[in-house]
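A sample copied in:

***
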Amino acid sequence: MHNKLEMAQDKFVESIGKLASSFGVNQFIAQLYAVLYLSDKPLSLDELVERLKASKGNISLNIRELENWGAVKNVWVKGSRKDYYEADPDVRKVVVNKLRSSVQKRMGQVSNMIEEFKELVGSAESEMTAEDKKTVKSYQEKLKKIEDMKNLATKAMSLAEKLF
C-alpha cells in the first residue's frame, strides 16, 4: 500500500477514535470499527493485531462488543479456519443502535435508582415524623421531575430512530 494511503488511514482511524471518545464511546472500539470499515475485505484477528498494534485478547474482547452493537459480524473465509470480521457499512444504523443501547441502559439505571429510593423511603414511612414526611413529599416531587426527564429522553430516542 502506498505510504500516503497508509498515513491517511492512520489519521482517519485516530480521528474516529478521538471523536468517539468525545461522545463517551471507547476510543479503541471506535478505532477497531474504523479499521474494519475502511477495509475492502474481511480481516482476521491477526491482521487486526498487526494493524492496531494491540494484543489479540484486547482485539477479541472489543470485537465481541462491536458484534453486540451490530457494528461488525464474523464472516467465513473459504480455506481458512481463522475468525474474520467485517464492519456493517451502514454507519447511520451502527450509530443509532449504539445510541439506543446507551439510552436504554441509562434509562434502566435511572428507573432502578428511583425504585430503590422509593423502596427505602417507603420502608421507613411509618417511623417518620411530620417533618420527615414533608421531606419525603419534596423528594417525590423531585423524583417526578427525574421520571419526566427519563420519559422525555426515551421519546426523543424514539423520534431520533424514526428520523434516521
Notes: The beta strands are 43-44, 72-75, 84-87. The longest helix spans residues 130-163. The longest strand covers residues 72-75. The chain has a mean pLDDT of 90.
